[in-house]
Specification:
Dehydroquinate synthase-like, alpha domain; 2 domains; 3-stranded mixed β-sheet; 4-stranded parallel β-sheet; Rossmann fold; alpha/beta; binds nicotinamide-adenine-dinucleotide; globular
């Protein structure tokens, strides 16, 4: 199983094994281990982790309530409080054990607790394996705005064990697969051609696919950790996607990150086609593939209004300009800061 070298740490992919994790922990550099999980990773995954990694049987466990609605500064305060009660010191290690909500929040807590302590990610969802656990973006939602507060703070290691995916629902697998579609479409035409042939969701998370998606993201992150340029390509589908996710969460409606990103990729591909960045053929190929996997999302009028409002707050904007990372043909991208509100409104109001 491969070890993928990132900026300052390694990403290990090991099926049914914790050899790399055990090796990492055997260096005994830490005074305390603190596992941050949620009720689902606690129920479905924790015993496997503790069985495979004896050192962690001594770990303190902080169990949070699952879900995006808890990725907030209030939950961080709860965790900072728990760390203080436990007596976590500068040499303690936080272990984020869960999906992207846990690694985003746990990484942010680690970055600020006592001005920063070490953390590692052990992702348990497809989305966090191929995307959220890699690249050092941490943070929380604030006043309903996605990832509004956060920092880039890198883990000391990422330990991917695809065996954890066995308890994940089909909906959650598709959720993660959206980020795989994204990276293929903007970074690797051959990978995109491979994905397009896959119809059955059970084939969405083979080890080859997981490894390829991580490698592609990692290449981009290594070149541009602080998102000055190339890393912006990873935001394809996310301007519209984040705005939709925020709008629906605000209305207490059910939406997963990947579902919102899938919707976002459709609209942003349409914008890319309108601006002559991708051909009609490529537009149809991505739209048809996404529609074959995800349920259609119809926006109500209040949702449309909220989506436009959230778009104006997007941190990817440059002053008053809306900046989108649009595909330029398949396999590459172009930053486009002249997407007007009028074009967006046209596509959103139609949906
Ligand atoms: N930092 C980044 O670079 C980055 C990139 C993409 C997405 N994200 C963030 O990631 C989050 C979405 O991640 P996610 O989809 O993993 O969400 P999540 O962490 O909310 O997990 C989804 C659900 O799956 C459950 N779960 C986790 N592992 C399980 C398992 N093995 N079996 C059964 N259930 C399990 C969780 O309890 C939760 O209910 C969003 O907040 C998004 O903004 C961050």
């Amino acid at each position: 199983m491969p070890t993928i070298k990132s900026t300052t740490y390694n990403i290990h992919v090991e099926h049914d094994s914790f050899d790399a994790l055990n090796k990492f922990l055997s260096k005994k550099e830490y005074t305390k281990y603190i596992i941050i999980c949620d009720e689902n990773t606690s129920q479905y995954c924790l015993s496997t982790l503790l069985f495979g990694c004896e050192t962690l049987t001594a770990a303190e466990i902080i169990e949070l309530e699952s879900g995006e609605k808890n990725k907030t500064i209030e939950t961080c305060m709860q965790v900072w409080g728990a760390l203080t009660d436990i007596g976590a010191d500068k040499k303690s290690l936080i272990i984020n054990f869960g999906g992207g909500a846990i690694s985003d929040l746990g990484g942010f807590v680690a970055s600020t607790y006592k001005r920063g302590i070490d953390f590692i990610n052990i992702p348990t969802t497809l989305l966090s394996m191929v995307d959220a656990s890699v690249g050092g973006k941490t943070g929380v939602d604030f006043e309903g705005i996605k990832n509004h507060i956060g920092v880039i703070y890198e883990p000391k290691g990422v330990f991917v064990n695809p065996a954890f995916l066995e308890t994940l629902s089909e909906r959650q697998i598709k959720n993660g697969y959206a980020e795989i579609i994204k990276i293929a479409f903007i970074a690797d035409n051959e990978f995109w051609k491979t994905l397009k042939k896959i119809k059955n969701y059970k084939e969405f998370y083979t080890e080859n696919i997981i490894i390829k998606a991580i490698e592609l993201k990692n290449v981009i992150v290594k070149k541009d950790l602080y998102e000055t340029n190339l890393r912006k390509s990873l935001n394809f589908g996310h301007n519209i996607g984040h705005a939709l996710e925020s709008a629906l969460i605000k209305q207490n409606k059910d939406i997963l990150h990947g579902e919102a990103v899938a919707f976002g990729m459709i609209i942003e591909s349409e914008i890319a086609n309108r601006l002559k960045r991708i051909s009609k053929k490529d537009l149809e190929s991505i739209v048809n593939y996404i529609k074959s996997i995800y349920k259609e999302i119809k926006l109500s009028n209040p949702t449309k209004k909220l989506v436009l409002e959230f778009l104006r707050h997007d941190k990817k904007n440059d002053g008053t300009h809306l900046c989108f990372a649009l595909p330029k043909n398949v396999g590459s991208y172009e930053l486009c800061c002249d997407v007007t509100m009028e074009i967006i409104e046209e596509f959103i109001s139609r949906g």
